[in-house]
Amino acid sequence: MTFKALLATKVQNTISTQIVDFNEVDLSPGDVTVAVDYSTVNYKDGLAITGRMPIIQHFPLIPGIDFSGKIISSTNPKFSVGESVLINGWALSHDHHGGYAQRARVKGEWLVKVPQPLSTRDAMAIGTAGYTAMLSVLALEHGGLNPDCGDVLVTGASGGVGSIAVALLSDLGYRVVASTGRLEETGYLKSLGAAEVIDRRELSQEAAPVSNGRWAGAVDSVGSHTLVNVLAQTKYRGVVTTCGIAQGADLPGSVLPFVTRSITLAGIDSVNAPQEVRQQAWERLAKDLNLNKLNSTIRTIGLAQVDEVSRLVLEGKVRGRTVVDVNA
Asked: Mind listing the pLDDT tens digit for each residue in 39-80?
């Protein structure tokens, strides 16, 4: 059986993609085969497809770090034909064929059953970015943060992780301050629940080791000087999560916020998180995320547009979530 897939190839140092008829027998090994409904375009997908980071380890490979769909065959006793499932990360788009295809074969231990009342489309409207946002919320809560502690900052707020983080935190009762380089998105961010929107330039320059405390906590997807500024401006016993490198992977700062204010910096890994953490995150997403807000963040594209949108994501020109309908 053949199906449509977006295949990445590499000649010398240049990666290119094209839609091909892919044979199911050539899929990566696994004990569950899924008819894919949807995937997404994330920052990591952009890094993979452009080659800006060596995400894809061998070629040719089907990219796409996540997908949702229905099981069409399974030898894994935990999963049955017809069940709706989703996957985030693991080896997808690394050394295992990923979600930009109409079929996927994976290890059952990588899958999560789509929780009610979410559909497979909802699952990818949330996608890896939204799942990462919920992992960040769980880390804030684990660090002792609650809405009475004070303002929570979200950087990169108009992007995928940021949009969902703003929506989640505001509905959980936090006063959310959204930082963005696209102030024209102020109305959008306030519709998601942001109480205040600030220009990212306030945070993107070199930082003093410690500044006036402004935030009880923060969700950062930017890194570099922005994260250093966030840490410098976090209040005593505040909690900051970090999950992205949009500005850079460096951390040109000081230990002073940690040793003088007892701040917690929690790293968020969505790729290899243990299954029990994934289950908790998706159960909370099904319960806590306002689907009306979620739907306001979505743009839907087909496989033919993935390459272009991946590049726009890296340039910070994509708002919210991009869902890929692999059957469009």
From this structure: 999 999 999 999 999 999 999 999 999 999 999 999 999 999
- The rounded distance, in Å, linking the Cα atoms of 317 and 220 is 18
Scan for tokens 């992992």, then name that residue.
135
Report phi then psi at 284, rounded to 5.
Answer: -70, -40
Distance from C-alpha of 106 to C-alpha of 62, rounded to nearest angstrom: 13
CB-based contacts of 305, cutoff 8 Å, min separation 6: none
Which DSSP letter does residue 29 get? Answer: P
Cβ(174)–Cβ(238) under 8 Å?
Answer: no
Which single residue is written with the structure tokens 């990923």? 98
CA separation, residue 6 to residues 52, 53, 178, 244, 322 (Å): 19, 19, 35, 25, 16
146: left (phi over 0), alpha (psi -120 to 50) or beta: beta
Task: Answer whether 0.70 is exceeded by the pTM.
Answer: yes
User: What does the angle CA 111 – CA 7 – CA 64 come to, to the nearest 5 degrees?
Assistant: 35
Which secondary-structure segment (H or E) carries 47? Answer: helix 43-50
In degrees and rounded to multiples of 5, residue 250 shows phi and psi of -80, 165
Q: How far apart are CA 162 and CA 175, in angstroms?
A: 15
> Which class for 31: exposed (0-12), middle (13-18), buried (19 or more C-beta within 10 A)?
middle
- Looking at residue 13, its pLDDT comes to 87
Element (H, E) at 14: strand 14-23
**Structure tokens given for 280:** 């908790």
- Report the C-alpha gap between 243 and 218 in whole angstroms: 11
